[in-house]
Amino acid sequence: MLLSLSIKNYALIESLEIDFSNQFSIITGETGAGKSILLGALGLVLGNRADLSALKDKEQKCVIEAHFLLSNYNLEAFFKEKELDYEQQTIIRREILPSGKSRAFINDSPVNLAELQALSVYLIDIHSQNETRELLNEEYQFQIVDAVAKNERRLESYRKGLSLLNKATKELNKLIAEKESLSKEKEYNTFLLEELLAAKLKAGEQAELEEELEQLSNVEFIKENVDKALSLANEEQLGTIITLNEIKQSFQKIAGFSKEYNDFHERIASVSIELQDIMDACFSNSEKIINDPERLGFVNVKLQSIYMLQKKHQVTTVEELLAIQNDLDSKVLRSDDLDAEIAKKEKEKADIVEKVDQVAVLITNARLEASPILSQKIEKILALLGMADAKVLFEIKETDTYTKLGKDAINLLFTGNKGMEVGAIKKMASGGEMSRIMLAVKAVLAKYSKLPSIIFDEIDTGVSGEIANKMAIIMKEMSQNMQVFAITHLPQIAAKGNQHYKVFKYNVKDDTLSELKLLSHDERVVEIAEMLSGKNISDSAINHAKELLN
């Protein structure tokens, strides 16, 4: 429920603070007095977008603050989900800075417009003339029926199931697409894999094979030089080993004379041992160096195979070829495994469909049961509004299509005349009839909806006399279940309010300001009399106003 509204530096309003009651409140004023400004300010608090044109003084910020009483509306979960502090008396503040930037706060916690708009859905319904066309909207028609059918929890369960169904469908389609793609490539991938497997590749073997190829291709040259080295080292007269041994013996003879000569002897002895070891290894190697055309051919073929595969797969190493081999192996195996995964996912989806369909049937049955009750209630109110022959029918049909609203299609049918067949409301109802139907719908919903407040912005357009009086009675009855505001030009409606506020403009020097004032009883008499007879108020208008108020 809206407890109070504070407006500073907005449009024609310099500063305004007003309190409201939980009953039926009337707002009147001449055209252009500022009623739309009041709704605009409230709209900003509820999350509408703002711009600098809203500022009265472009050098000062605009601040709009609304206090709402939230007890008994079960909004704690919403605040917890949004990580906001819950207060039974919640304060929403909107600031528009001279720079054009806008800020919003809920209980002094900064929020974005999306969060503000999400909360506003639970706070207040501002119904203008244009919103009467909501009756033509399928989603709104479902909202009306579902409120009476008490489908809120069923729809919540259904939407959770639908989310799982959409997820399972997406995953299944992805698996099927992957299967189709791999099936097309499987034969080629298998060929490539077998080709790589046949090559029997090993990490690091390319460098080894290239080195071996170099040796096998130059075997005679290598053997010639190894043998020459062995000959030079082991020649009987001038061989390197013989000469080195003689040098070693010479230093051995004088090693005892000084530490330096002894070091020379030890170092030469070490060199002698190392050289002998090298020559022994060379001799062993020389015996293995043979001309092997068969091995040369094998190594050459193996390397050519590796080079061909590298060129084919556009890589430069055996390790990269092995990575491609592993990937191809995975793809071939994946193609074989997908059938089992698809079957499993299809079973999972079928189970979800079964559960979602069960809830959808409950929703449909509740709608079919509620729709005639809803029609009867609306028709009863329409009869009070001068439409005794009106017929309203909510046509519910089951479909195979899953939407966020269930598996039904809905069509609101109407006729205002006796003996005429019902038809689509957009073709059958006039503007005045649409206004009365919407009021009837809102009146019914007031008993089912948990919405704290509603504002009717000139819903009485196009009606007068006794019909206006009946509309006022209906809105008054609605205020027993919720806070109701009516912006009106009709005295019959204005007289039914528990409180009456007047919007008016006045001039201060060269400035025009707008103000909202709570009228006393005597001021209400004058206001309603003026609504009856104009600025020149007659005695009969005063008496008529008093009669209406009484």
TrEMBL record:
Pfam families with a match to the protein in the record: SMC_N
Gene3D superfamilies named among the record's database cross-references: P-loop containing nucleotide triphosphate hydrolases
Stretches assigned to the RecF/RecN/SMC N-terminal domain: 6-506
Keywords: ATP-binding, Coiled coil, DNA damage, DNA repair, Nucleotide-binding
Parts forming coiled coils: 165-219
Domain of life: Bacteria
Family: Belongs to the RecN family.
Summary of the function given for this chain in its UniProt record: May be involved in recombinational repair of damaged DNA.
Protein name, per record: DNA repair protein RecN
Lineage summary: Bacteria, Pseudomonadati, Bacteroidota, Flavobacteriia, Flavobacteriales
